[in-house]
Design brief:
YaeB-like fold, 6-stranded antiparallel barrel, 7 helices
Length: about 280
């Protein structure tokens, strides 16, 4: 008779042998010029007309490893969330209601092993470099592996997507607030767009029209009697009165002494912030 209460593994069970430490090293790095996660799409779908470079390390025979990759429309990039140190069992996704989700049910970077995967358009192969299209990786992201994207086995368009499907069925989040700009905010926004090609307010208005309430993932917090939203390297100050949101002003995310420090090399929009601070000290 079978012993239902026994936890003894079957006779064919073989205990897996693992090294105490798993080792991996980057095969190369992404060169995108994007320093902030707020300049990235949540998922690259190939709509943006952009070019990025996966530059593989020399001296590893990677030129040979890339042979025969030409001809695939897309490749998978397996990469490392190198700016994240701690993982979280539950996270608050930017989409949908304020409800935490298990991290394994999300694409959050706060993972036990911060590994990411992205399908990207492959434009061409140049020796140790891949020229690729739209990406959701910041500049300098370590690349761990590259695999060809095969539609017949990598795409399952009829698959369910859990809580994401629920949000999709509910439709896009409605624009419940009317957003206006103060005279100062309009001038500042025009300066950034016309002089530096930065559309800070356009992104902010969309987010505020949906929900301007304090939210960690959307990076909105109280600031005295006002509210503050972080948009990459910039800050947007606003006030709320009923269903009206007024953007009061913009400001750089870094103080002048920080911007002037030559040792601080990883500052997005540094020159634009310096020029902005000089005009609106």
């Amino acid at each position: 008779m079978k012993n239902r209460g026994s936890s003894k593994p079957p006779a064919t069970w073989i205990e897996p042998e693992y090294e105490p430490v798993l080792r991996a090293e980057p095969i190369g790095f992404l060169r995108s010029g994007k320093r902030s996660k707020f300049s990235l799409p949540h998922q690259p779908v190939g709509n943006a007309d952009e070019r990025n470079v996966v530059e593989l390390n020399p001296g590893k025979q990677f030129e040979q490893a890339l042979l025969d990759l030409e001809g695939f429309d897309r490749v998978w990039l397996i990469w490392w969330f190198h700016r994240h140190r701690n993982w979280k069992a539950q996270v608050l996704p930017p989409r949908g209601p304020k409800k935490k989700r298990g991290v394994f049910a999300t694409r959050s970077p706060h993972r036990p092993n911060p590994i990411g995967i992205t399908p990207v358009e492959l434009i061409r192969v140049e020796k140790r470099r891949l020229i690729v299209g739209e990406v959701d990786l910041i500049d300098g992201t370590p690349i761990l592996d590259i695999k060809p994207y095969v539609p017949a086995i990598d795409a399952f368009p009829g698959s369910k997507a859990g809580w994401v499907d629920e949000i999709e069925r509910a439709g896009e989040e409605p624009l419940r607030f009317q957003v206006t700009l103060s005279e100062l905010a309009e001038v500042q926004a025009a300066f950034l767009e016309e002089e530096w090609g930065l559309e800070i307010v356009e992104k902010a208005v969309r987010r505020l029209a949906v929900d301007p309430s304090p939210h960690r993932t959307r990076r909105i917090s109280r600031h005295g009697s006002e509210f503050l939203m972080s948009c990459g390297a910039w800050r947007v100050y606003f006030a709320v009165a009923g269903e009206i949101v007024e953007v009061l002003r913009l400001s750089p995310g870094y103080p002048n002494e920080y911007l002037a420090d030559p040792k601080k090399t990883r500052i997005a929009d540094r020159q634009a912030q310096i020029a902005f601070s000089a005009r609106w000290p």
